[in-house]
From TrEMBL:
<dbReference type="Pfam" id="PF00535">
    <property type="entry name" value="Glycos_transf_2"/>
</dbReference>
<dbReference type="InterPro" id="IPR001173">
    <property type="entry name" value="Glyco_trans_2-like"/>
</dbReference>
<dbReference type="GO" id="GO:0016740">
    <property type="term" value="F:transferase activity"/>
</dbReference>
<dbReference type="Pfam" id="PF02709">
    <property type="entry name" value="Glyco_transf_7C"/>
</dbReference>
<dbReference type="InterPro" id="IPR050834">
    <property type="entry name" value="Glycosyltransf_2"/>
</dbReference>
<protein>
    <submittedName>
        <fullName>Glycosyl transferase</fullName>
    </submittedName>
</protein>
<keyword id="KW-0808">Transferase</keyword>
<feature type="domain" description="Glycosyltransferase 2-like">
    <location>
        <begin position="3"/>
        <end position="133"/>
    </location>
</feature>
<dbReference type="InterPro" id="IPR029044">
    <property type="entry name" value="Nucleotide-diphossugar_trans"/>
</dbReference>
<feature type="domain" description="Galactosyltransferase C-terminal">
    <location>
        <begin position="173"/>
        <end position="235"/>
    </location>
</feature>
<dbReference type="InterPro" id="IPR027791">
    <property type="entry name" value="Galactosyl_T_C"/>
</dbReference>
Length: 259
C-alpha cells in the first residue's frame, strides 16, 4: 500500500481541494497521513467534514505551532504510516486523477522519485478556491487557454505522459527539481536515514537534505516529470529567513563527502 504524507499549515480551503482531488484517484489503494504543523481549528473542521463524507483512510497528526517545523511532523507521519511506499505531498497542491497510479508505476526498489509541479497564477488560484468542489474535467477543459493567458506555466506535461525508463535516472546529486511537495521513496529507506533532519527548521531545503542523504545511502534518484505533475496553488512567499542557512548546511554535507 502507498501512504500519502500530506503536509499542511493553516490553509484549509486549499487542503479541501487537495483532499477532493485525492478522492478521484484511479488507484485507490492508499492511505492519507495529514502532517499538520500547528494549524488552527478550521483545518481540523475541514478534515473532519471530509472524513465524514468519504470512506478513505485518513489520519490527522497535529503538533503545536512553534514556527516552521515541517521536518518534525513529517517524521511523525513516516512513523505512523502503514504503507511500504511513501509519497510526499503538500496541502497547497491539487493532484491529477492518475497521480497515485503514476507514482506506483515509477516505484522501484533502490530508487526514490522527485516529481514536478505546474504553477498556477493568483487569478486562477482564487477562481479554483471558489469552486464548490474540485472538478478535474472542468479544469482540464480550459487547460490550453490557461496556458496561453498565463494561468499555468506548463501545458504539455499535463497532457503527455511517459512511463518508466532509464532516461529518468539522475547520475549524481543535483538540486534541480527537488520539490518536497511531490516526491516519493520506500518507507524502509526513509527510516534507514532516520527521516528528515529535525534540526533544520524554518522554510527551505529540508527536502534537498533528505534527498542527498537518501542518495548517500545508495538510493538512486529518478525523475517523476511528465507523469506525476501536481497543480501548485499560488500563495505569497513564505518567510525564507532560514533558507540560506539550511542551504549552507546541505552544501557543507556535499563538500564533506567530496573531500
Amino acid at each position: 500500500m502507498i501512504s500519502i504524507l500530506l503536509a499542511t499549515y493553516n490553509w484549509p480551503q486549499a487542503l479541501k481541494l487537495c483532499l477532493e482531488s485525492l478522492a478521484t484517484q484511479t488507484d485507490s489503494d492508499f492511505e492519507i497521513i495529514i502532517a499538520d504543523d500547528g494549524s488552527t481549528e478550521s483545518t481540523k473542521q475541514i478534515i473532519d467534514t471530509f472524513k465524514a463524507s468519504h470512506a478513505m483512510s485518513i489520519t490527522h497528526l497535529w503538533q503545536e505551532d512553534q514556527g516552521f517545523r515541517k521536518t518534525k511532523i513529517l517524521n511523525q507521519a513516516i512513523a505512523a504510516s502503514q504503507g511500504d511506499y511513501l509519497v510526499f505531498l503538500d496541502g497547497d497542491c491539487i493532484v491529477q486523477p492518475d497521480f497515485v497510479e503514476r507514482h506506483r508505476e515509477l516505484a522501484q526498489k533502490g530508487y526514490l522519485v522527485t516529481g514536478s509541479r505546474v504553477l498556477l497564477n493568483e487569478k486562477l488560484t482564487q477562481d479554483l478556491l471558489t469552486w464548490p468542489t474540485w472538478d478535474f474535467k472542468r479544469f482540464n477543459s480550459k487547460l490550453l487557454g490557461e496556458r496561453l493567458s498565463g494561468g499555468i506555466n506548463k501545458y504539455l506535461p499535463l497532457v503527455i505522459k511517459f512511463g518508466n525508463g532509464g532516461w529518468r535516472d539522475y547520475k549524481k546529486f543535483v538540486w534541480r527539481r527537488i520539490k518536497g511537495c511531490n516526491m516519493a521513496c520506500w518507507k524502509a529507506d526513509a527510516q534507514a536515514i532516520d527521516g528528515f533532519d529535525e534540526t533544520m527548521t524554518g522554510w527551505g531545503h529540508e527536502d534537498a537534505d533528505f534527498i542527498l542523504r537518501l542518495q548517500r545511502h545508495h538510493i538512486k534518484r529518478k525523475s517523476g516529470s511528465w507523469a506525476t505533475e501536481v497543480l501548485h496553488l499560488f500563495h505569497k512567499i513564505h518567510d525564507q529567513s532560514n533558507a540560506a542557512e539550511n542551504a549552507r548546511r546541505v552544501r557543507e554535507k556535499i563538500l564533506a563527502k567530496a573531500m
